[in-house]
Amino acid sequence: MSSNYQDKQKLLQEKKEKIARLKEEQMKQQLQIASVKQPQQVTQAEENGESKQSSQQVQPTQNQGVIAPPQQSDFISLYLQTKRKKLGFQTIEMYSNNPAPPQAEVITIEFGVQCEFEMPQQKQENDDQVIPIMENVRRDSRKKKEVLQSAEKVVEKVEKNISMEEINSIVQSQSFQRFFSRSSKTIEKAIHGGEVDVLEDLMNTQQVAQEIGKDNLTKLLSFSDKVYTENRVVTSIQWSPTLPNTFLAAYSQNEEGSITDQVGVVLLWSLQLKSRPEFYCFANSPITSACFHPFSPNVVLGGLYNGQVVVWDLRAKHTPEKRSTLNSGGHSYPIYGLSIVGSQNANNLISSSNDGRICIWNLAQLNQPQKIIDLKTKNKQQTTNPQVEVNSTCMVFPQGDANNFYVGAEDGCIYKSKLHQNTNENIVIPFEEHLAPVSGISLNSSPQASPIISNLLLSSSFDWTCKLWNTRTQSDNKCLATFECSEDYVYDVQWNGQHPSLFSTTDGEGYVDLWDLSYDLEAPITRYKSGNNSINKSQWSKDGTKIAIGDSFGEIQILQLSQKAQKVDHERLAKLEQWIKSEK
Amino acid sequence: MSEIEETINRIKTHKSVQGIVICNNDGQIIRSTYGTESKEGENIARTIPTLAAKAKSTVRDLDPQNELTFLRIKSKNNEIMVAPDKEFLLIVVQGPKEEKKEDE
After folding, report:
1. pLDDT in tens, A110-151
2. A88-102, A144-158, A434-448, B13-27: least confident range
3. Distance, CA of A298 to CA of A315 (rounded, Å)
4. C-alpha angle A430/A432/A435, rounded to 5°?
5. Contact B11 A176 (CB under 8 A)
6. Which chain B residues have a beta carbon less than 8 Å from that of A162?
7. Gap between the Cα atoms of A229 and A223, Å rounded
8. ∠ at Cα B83 (B82, B87), nearest 5°?
9. What CA–CA distance (Å, rounded) separates A276 from A280?
10. How confident is the model at residue A46 (pLDDT cuts 50, 70, 90)?
11. Contact state of B97 with A162 under an 8 Å Cβ cutoff
């Protein structure tokens, strides 16, 4: 009997040792599992379940950790087997030899809906307690299936619960509006553009194939908006210095519109978005001039009919972010000239109004201009101090110059002046030849221009002519050449930004004349009729291949310049320079 | 509010556009031109957000500074364009690309 008892004791001992060994192996396996982490919900749950269970659970996905069947005498194994079977066990050997339970197959379902895993987060159970494995396994897989099914149900339930009120409230929300305005523009560009990358500027696909020798100007696109451009005169056009293929256009008031129409409108158009403007800017007075801020891509500046200077931020709202006050000592007449001079760090806004007043503004402080200059000139009868104000209609600064500027006036003269003068008086130097108000002036800004050519100034006037001036020679102030080909007011003249001797004039009959000085000083190389409306403003694009023209009924056309006209003939250009030199 | 409807109309009446769906990231339809009878709108709203999310995470994985701006799926029968956002998606289904029409 005692030997039996001793035997039993020995068996018990061995059993305990075996359990200890198994636990060790188990711990090793757990460490292995922890290092091989898989980012799936189900295996995560598996691990969670794993950590709680006792030692005897085996990882099905691990093929390495197969526990060697313990070496036992038949007696003991039989004993253990019967005991386990009684409790509903599955032996370790059986378990490890079987293939992995269905957990692995369930792993691939991904929903994106995180749901609470229902496995109870229990504290560590007693390690010595031997918990039925098979039941747990079954429970796990069942639970996981339930959880996943409930996840599906959750999604369905959420879908059914969203109601019309919720939808409407979402639609009204700010974030939705912003999202929609942005993404709808992208989508519209994509729809129109076809293969073109919608986010970049690739105008190549939109270039109309041109035969060499044919028309020098061909119409590319036309922009107008029923609501905002109908019956309004285009008062200002400028291409963006930073955004490609984007330009702004300022419009006057719609005379025949309703009271609720916006009075002052600036629209930003993109060549890729043809159906509507990319941005809107509104003001409470007609806008007479507008420009981009060359150093801040999101800022647009405008000069109003009532003399106010306004600043829009495109990222914010449609109405001006900042504006100058009407009684601040600034302007009280329409602002016809607006430009930013200076460098990125030190720049000022210069505005000129119809009464001859020039104001220098600091954009951070629009309450008061930094400096006010009143341009005055002498009357024909006067000999002493200048008394007559200069009614300026346009203003231009040479590129890179922050001091000298030219102003075209209603008396037909062009005045040259400086922002900062040594004396207190304001000295203006007149170029007097036009017989009617000057409507537009332009300085040659072509990078290919020689120093002689870059001093050339063009002016257009209501006297049906355009004149060419050399700004260097101040002796007799005679113009170099007169261009008479229009039979109506010439509204605007613009040098081509790239070609040193090419410029365009637009007149009241709808003609756009293209002149190349190196070819002919007497006649334009092309006369293009853009319609029956007079063209008020025009502007060449930065690369000099396109010109945007705005007419008096709110329509803007983009014309493409032919390759032939873009070519620079250097010989002829040299001859032109010779002639200019000789004209002194 | 009406601006949205106008824009949706304008996109919808464009040649070859078959349908528009605006939904949020969970697949709930906010606006759809497919109507409630056809299952197409629901199918789109159910499947596209997950694909867009996967594309978003892929772009981020490849370069953490990058983000998805536009997704375009060209298939044999049509073309699906997705403009994703933090919370919403604008999905436009367009028919096969036709010849370039002349601009007026």
Report:
1. 556 555 555 554 444 444 445 455 555 555 566 666 665 555
2. A88-102
3. 7
4. 140
5. no
6. 28
7. 9
8. 110
9. 10
10. very low
11. no
- C-alpha–C-alpha distance, residues A68 and A22, integer Å: 10
pLDDT at position A60, please? 43
- Gap between the Cα atoms of A62 and A54, Å rounded: 17
> How far is residue A159's CA from residue A102's CA, in Å, rounded to a whole number?
30
Locate A487 and state its tokens: 């039979």
CA distance A160 to B42: 12
A288, A275 contact by CB (below 8 A) = no
- The pLDDT score that the predictor gives to residue A31 is 65
Distance between CA atoms of residues A91 and A69, nearest Å: 10
A282 and A318 Cβ atoms separated by less than 8 Å: yes
Write out the DSSP string of A489-528.
-EEEEEE-SSSTTEEEEEETTSEEEEEETTT-SSS-SEEE
Q: How would you classify residue A229: left for phi > 0, otherwise alpha for psi between -120 and 50, otherwise beta? A: alpha
- What are the start-end ranges of the E strands in A241-391? 246-251, 264-270, 279-283, 287-292, 299-304, 309-313, 322-323, 335-342, 347-353, 357-361, 371-374, 376-377, 388-389
Question: Which has the closest alpha carbon to A500: A449, A559, A450, A435?
Answer: A449
Q: Tell if the CB–CB gap between B103 and A183 is shorter than 8 Å.
A: no
Cα A238 to Cα A271, A541, B9: the distances in Å are: 13, 8, 31
Q: Which residues contact A316 (CB under 8 A, 6 or more apart)?
A: none
Backbone phi and psi for residue A186, each to the nearest 5 degrees, phi listed first:
-60, -45
Q: Please, are residues A568 and A578 in contact by the beta-carbon 8 Å criterion?
A: no
> Which residues in B73-89 are b (16+ Cβ under 10 Å) and which e?
eeeeeebbbbbbbeebb
The answer to ipTM > 0.90 is no
**Which of B8, B12, B20, B26 would you mutate first to test chain A, the one with the most A CBs within 10 A?**
B26
pLDDT in tens, A202-214: 344 334 343 333 5
Taken in order A74, A80, A81, A83, is the CA torsion positive or negative?
Answer: positive
d(CA A224, CA A531): 14
Identify whether the C-beta of residue A240 lies closer than 8 Å to the C-beta of residue A247.
yes
Closest Cα to residue B14, out of A276, A202, A558? Answer: A276
Phi, psi angle pair for A10, to nearest 5°: -60, -45
CA A369/CA A332 separation, integer angstroms: 13
Q: Give A32's contacts (C-beta < 8 A, 6+ positions apart).
A: A62, A64, A65
Q: Which is nearest to A188 in space by CA: B14, B28, B53?
A: B14
What number does CATH give the domain A200-582?
2.130.10.10
What are A486's two structure tokens? 């229009």
Q: Give the C-alpha separation, A566 to A545, whole Å.
A: 7
Nearest CA to CA, how far is A497 from chain B (Å)?
26
> Which residue of chain B comes nearest to A112, CA vs CA?
B50
Closest chain B C-alpha to A51 CA, distance in angstroms = 31
Q: Which of B24, B87, B103 comes nearest A220 by C-beta? A: B103
Strand A246-251 and strand A264-270: the pairing is: antiparallel
Cβ neighbours of A157 (radius 10 Å): 10
